[in-house]
Amino acid sequence: MVESEARRAASAYDAFISYHAMDLPVVHRLVERLHEEGFHVFLDDWCLVAGEPWQERQSEALADSSCCLVMCGAHGLGPWQEEEVRLAVSARVSGRSLRVIPVLLPGASDLEDLDFLERFTYCDFRGGLDQPRSFTRLCAGIRGEAPGPPQTAVSALRAGQPSPAATYRSAFHAPASGWQRSSAVAAAHAAVTAGGAPVVLCGLPGVGKTHVLCDTADGLRAGRTVLALSAGGTTAAEPRYLVEEVNAWLDRTFGRGLTDEELYLHDWPDALAALLARVAEEPLLVLLDDLGTDQAGGTVLRAFAGHPDCLVLATAAEHLVDTADVRHVLVPPMSRAEGTDFIAHMAERTNLPVEAEELAEQLPADVLSHPLALRTFLAHTAYVPAVLLVRPGLPSDVLSARKLVSTAVVRLPPVHRKALAWAAVLGRVALADLLSAGMALPSWFTLALSDLVPRCLVVQVTGGVEVPQLVIQALDDVEPTARRTALHEILTELARLAADAERDGLASLAGVLTPMARVSAETAVPPGPGGCRTAGVPPT
Questions:
Q1: DSSP secondary-structure letter at 443?
Q2: Long-range pairs for 381-389 at CB < 8 Å and ≥24 separation?
Q3: Quick one: average pLDDT of 32-51?
Q4: Global pTM?
Q5: Do 424 and 486 meet the contact criterion of CB atoms below 8 Å apart?
Q6: What are residue 102's DSSP bridge partners?
Q7: pLDDT value of residue 502
């Protein structure tokens, strides 16, 4: 860090980023990693101030940078990018100590078509951004140093150094943002360090389970070799792919992989056990993202749990079946305070023109609680005022992120959706009060709840149940009249009880009717900003 400060005394920026506009998404990901490493970079998308002349500002930034990173992607060099690169090369030719580093992004061709860059040593990310050696070379180039020999994970472990967090973050597409859901990370950390059983983080789609997994891993990885596996998609359908990934990691990290012939001598569970037996003496941290909730997912967890010194942390859409020896930790939607804090963090980090508290008041409650939808919304505010995005309707990609939860609701049997509507209506009422008022909950309702809770669609709280606002909105999208019907059925039953009640019974009913009247009024509220109904459960 002392060297970095010394460089900045001579140059305002460690690196100037030159890129084609069509490559901005992948450029963002790579530059965020450089930012995490402590480099002070100039990226026009981050640094230009609205209302200032941009060409002059970029020319000044290039002149004030130690090096120029020329991002070469599938679209080649853009016209203005070519001008930037020629200025950088010209500055170097004229004697200025400006390093020009070509960076080949995924989809890029060779540098043969760019004769004025061909003689510069480049960093090759054409095989993907998760290339540790290429990233090491890039960081060393920015510092003006040679990368030196590669340091294997084994030597790093023996030196007592943890594996780089960037490795598993890149594998899971979850770059560090400097902000984390502290309560969720603390719960996950406590569950893992309690020892014994694997820990599975469960939650609705888009609530940030993978980020919580990575943030938790940051505090657990010291002294352990990290194995990070994406366990969803084709891997969930065919676990043999996961076994092959473990074998490749074992060979790459310890040089102890099995040959193809040895690997396919066994069924996949036995092959996985044989691979883990080869590192029985090594302390491991195993991260499994998007683990399948079927029997195969449980088999994978048990295999890693059988390792003598292994911490296992996974994410899944819901509780795993037939896994009594697993700790399930709920990652809930964000509270209002978390959503507001996230807006403030992103506004400061990326210079967004928003005020956190004011925007939190304007946004629908379900969007404020959904990290993916909120992050998508904030991306729009860099170009469009937030007030125009909220009304008359939210941007389509924000709605698409929010409606990920609708898929889980659509797949429910009709009786489960009916139970979900009942739970949404009863969210304001303590179940003990209902029982004392003489109202017996239907058997189909209690049976459905036993399935809805593991699916993370209903949350058990002290004294009753609660339905997240995300789920209420999804239910309203799928069955717009479901909650009204549930409210009518529940009020009809309460009216019957009131008609038959004695004086003491009426007193018990009073404690139920007051919150039910509030629910009744809220359920009748028309859709709010962005098409979101604001009824259901109290804000968290």
A1: H
A2: 381/352, 381/353, 381/354, 382/45, 382/350, 382/352, 382/353, 385/353, 386/354, 386/359, 386/362, 387/362
A3: 87
A4: 0.66
A5: yes
A6: 70
A7: 66
